[in-house]
Amino acid sequence: MLYHLLPQLADEFIAFNLFRYLTFRTGGAVMTALFIGLYIGPKMIRWLKSKQKEGQPIRADGPEGHFIKAGTPTMGGLLILISVTISTLLWADLRNPLIWLALLVMCGYGLIGFGDDYLKLTKRNSKGLSGRLKIVAQFAIGLVAALGMMFVLPSDLGAHVAIPFFKHFFVYLGWVFPFWALFVIIGSSNAVNLTDGLDGLAIVPVAIVAACFGLIAYLVGRADFANYLNIPFVPGTGELAVLCGALIGGAMAFLWYNAPPAMVFMGDTGSLALGGVLGTIALMTKQELVLAIIGGLFVLETVSVIVQVASFKLTGKRVFAMAPLHHHFEKKGWSEPTIVIRFWIIAVVLGILGLATLKLR
Known about the structure:
Blueprint: H1 2-5, H2 22-51, H3 77-91, H4 97-123, H5 131-152, E1 160-162, E2 170-172, H6 177-195, H7 203-220, H8 223-229, H9 240-258, H10 267-284, H11 288-294, H12 296-315, H13 325-331, H14 336-356
Antiparallel strand pairs: 1-2
Helix pairs in contact: 2-3, 2-9, 3-4, 3-9, 3-10, 4-5, 4-10, 5-6, 5-10, 6-10, 6-12, 7-9, 7-10, 7-14, 10-11, 11-12, 11-14
């Protein structure tokens, strides 16, 4: 919105010319989302507490240390979604269809998560929506976004997958691309959801991935930088840096209230939305395989669940004391802050490795 209004006044006040620059608007999006989140946080937490007398249901078979968290409200993802959406609408170029497709996934998946959290609270169990209903809803929203990408992106990129470490090496998927896109979006969404199990555990890696893809979006959206790095130039994707900036700001605001001991939990409202939008941005920038490296912590958590379930069904034995992986270390006696900080360190290292692939061609 500001991008469309204020630069028109640059002749009268030269400072308004700053609003033309993507880097300035990305910084503005970070700070706007941060301040909105910090401002509405206390009010939202009080409101959530008034509506959730007993807070988020705690798994009876979960780590013993989690029972002291009983009564903590959930659905804190609303704080992130509100701050990110407002900030993006203020600072982004709203004529860019990629922005709207990304917001569609984020808000749509947030609505799915909201329904899941609501049922958990009203039925007082930790299951929420049925797995089938969640997947169908995720599939429908993701399919709209996937088809939209194919229509909006250049024809020589829309249905292609870029292979890291190789110069201009693409695999053409054709009409298989929507199914690939669904796999990335839904997989990313549920991977973040699985990781969100300890105070602050998921939100910092989300911010790290958003920061990495903010840089990637900026580089991929600039023909000069893309040509220098031998990565695909995708027109219009630079604007996604603004959305990534808003995600960073919203994540930092949420962490302020989610830092141990958490005043509010993200819930599926936040985790499904954040994972979904990160997967969408990765697809738009043609760096979905790099997402598997930068977001490797989420992949690791997901794999631990798959291995645990497969091992138990095939052999009757469990590989981990409890899955996802962070619960395994809790069962082994690691303190929650130790697990969270060490996982953050892993997320930083993976982010650096993922960014390095842009030059290793």
